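User: Show me a protein chain along with its predicted structure.
Assistant: Here is one chain, sequence first, then structure tokens.
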Amino acid sequence: MKFFVVGLGNFGATLSINLTSLGHEVIGADISLNKVESLKNRITHTVCMDCTDANNLHSLPLKEMDVVIVAIGEDFAASVLITALLKQQNVKKLIGRAFNEVHRTVIEALGVDELLFPEQEAAERVAKRLTLPFVENSYEICEQSAMMELSIPPKFYYQRLDETGLTDIKGLKVVGYLNIQSEKSIWGYTRNVKKLDVEVAPSRELKPGDRLLIIGNVKEIKKIIDK
């Protein structure tokens, strides 16, 4: 997978290093030359640039990136501006880092696909989760198991839940169905709103864009997705 990480502070740098060590291609960008120079041998690619400048962003291969992450720490204005510019670029998946409730509200209104709270979640764990296909959010229960929010894989579109094989695996349990609906924010940006149904019948038809809430062994889920 290909990742673009904006902001190489403690969190952004650790996340980028871990993603690179997992075998993924990472472009790490920061306005500080010292940070970029210190990480150039630990991240696939590093670039020193001001990402609040739309022209600079246009020079990057953003369309090729699978995930774009705004990992900026305490600079509220820069984080919001860069997020808005990246949203306009229609990147495949845009993830924002929220560092307080006000920032979270603004970033959500801009329509990011996912929010990260690094004070609550170690960068190492974020890196592992981001590279597990179709898993949008996860909460680690123990070393092998987690509660996961699984985006419906294309091969399961319009199948019944009991036709996917997910209900046949010992140690896996589907505990919820998330219907994802798009709505306009107060600023006119489109954002996704989740509607949870905790009663999931085996006959439930799985639709594109929706998600399953699953508890169980991470490796077992990866097996059935990769089949």
